[in-house]
Amino acid sequence: MVWNKLFVNHCHVFPKKSDSPGELGIIGTLDKLVDTMKKCRINKAVAFAPFEEQGWTQSIKRDANDWLAEELPSYHEIVGFACINPKSPKSLEKLEKAWRKGLLGVKLHPPIQEFRPNDEKIFEFYLKAQELGMILDFHTGTHGWRLLEYQPLLIDDVAYAFPKLNIVIEHVGGRYFYNQAMALMADKKNVYAGISSCLDEKANKSWFLGAEKIEEIDALIGGERIIYGTDFPYNDWKRILKDVEIIKNSNLTESTKEKTLGGNLERLIKTVPQH
């Protein structure tokens, strides 16, 4: 059964340091992630390095992607993704270095990193990611900054220019940009629906879609492009278990449930050239 081999996306992890920003250095460590995985019977998970913009590089006095890559040999159940601002002067160098160190994708957050996804000045970054076979995981949905600078339709230019680049759009645009995200996925087959923080209306009001919308994604786009993510540690183990139960009890076919809870992510990860 699918429930015995869960592979989840979208876990944020942070170094455990006394001078780390906020409580994330306590509740969001790799060890805490492993503990959460055990409670939720999750076999594998994709973990994102911290954003430089949140002060982690200064806090731990080293590159956050290096930190994650060097920790991962002790955590065989975790797959690492880098966090890189594509508009930074050394973005290409950081991308290649992350890939050499075994990080298989990149988490991108346009409103936090303040970049416009279809800015042609960063197309070299996308080209290099496509050449390396890395997965790009975009945040979508309202999150501060200027809405016109990061609405999901801007990613259409990226998916069109780089058709072999695998792109995951997290939160599927959320409540407010859901239709844009659907149009993007309907037109571009290399774009996947990342359904993290989409199933709990009370906890995730801006990104809530609910089971019916997930079933709609399946009906209109197909079950081969839905990927469940936990949004750890912002969602705790109880909320993650609730998400899994909602998916299990939905009207999705058993095959689509299996793909959503790990099959699609496993297939994508296998497309990335490994060292």
Q: Helix- and strand-based class?
A: alpha/beta
- CATH superfamily, called what? Metal-dependent hydrolases
Q: What is the average of the pLDDT values? A: 93
Distance between the termini: 31 Å
| Total beta strands | 8
Shape-level CATH architecture: Alpha-Beta Barrel
Please tally the helical runs, counting DSSP H or I stretches of 4 or more residues. Answer: 12
Global Rg: 17 Å
CATH class: Alpha Beta
CATH topology: TIM Barrel
Biggest sheet, spatial arrangement of strands: 1-2-3-4-5-6-7-8
Notable traits:
275 residues, alpha/beta, TIM Barrel, eight-stranded parallel beta barrel, globular
Q: Quick recap of the structure?
A:
The protein is an alpha/beta fold. The protein contains twelve helices and eight strands.
